[in-house]
Amino acid sequence: MAKLFSYDNPVWRFMGRVADVFFLTVLWAVCCLPVVTVGASTSALYYVSLKMAKNGEGYLGKSFLKAFKDNFAQSTAVWLIMLAAGGFLGADLYFFYHMESRAGVFAFWLFLVFTVFWLFVAVLVFPLEARLDTKVGNLFFMAFMVCIKNFSWVLLMAVTAVCVLAVGVFVFWPVLLLGAGTVAYVHSLILVWMVFPKYGWNGEEA
């Protein structure tokens, strides 16, 4: 009976992790409210979830807010660059989709490919920013190179994010209560155990 209520019980560990993911999602959503802070909030989310992936998260709220504050300037710059690039690609896709010519069709598919790579960089750049101490330009270069060299894993990360969002929006909205935290945690598990070890980013802060 004592084992049933022990924290080492797999059921309780799972429930504890679900509670952590919910708490992280709420923190992330609240800190995203001004919109301009989405980058800092996302970076902080990955900072904590990367630690969670190795069971070294400590106090979630304290770690999240510290990362939010420490990485605010650079994370905001990364977010604004990604937002501008996404807006540019979205406008081009809309424009060329409505062009009734071969050139328009070719341009549409070309920009669609660019958009896919933008999505792949988007799922990598914030966890890299949370893990590494480097300049913004180098972050984007590293995100792109990691994407190229680990395409299948990054594709899985992108599909995970899209599927969780789609299920939350079109099927069962309560999924969104765990959405951001779930995506970040799954991504962190993939990065910590499958990607980061290849580059020596698996342990301490780089």
Descriptive overview:
The structure is a single chain. This protein has 206 residues and is mainly α. The chain is built from eight helices and no strands. The protein has helices spanning 10-32, 38-52, 60-70, 72-97, 102-131, 136-149, 151-170, 176-195.
Explain the layout of strands and helices.
Blueprint: H1 10-32, H2 38-52, H3 60-70, H4 72-97, H5 102-131, H6 136-149, H7 151-170, H8 176-195
Helix pairs in contact: 1-2, 1-8, 2-3, 2-4, 2-5, 2-8, 4-5, 5-6, 5-7, 7-8
Brief digest:
With 206 residues, this protein is mainly alpha-helical.
Helix percent band = over 70%
Query: Could you give the count of β-strands?
Result: 0
Computed CA radius of gyration, to the nearest angstrom: 18 Å
Q: Helix count, per DSSP?
A: 8
C-alpha end-to-end distance: 44 Å
Short descriptors:
8 helices, globular, 206 residues, mainly alpha
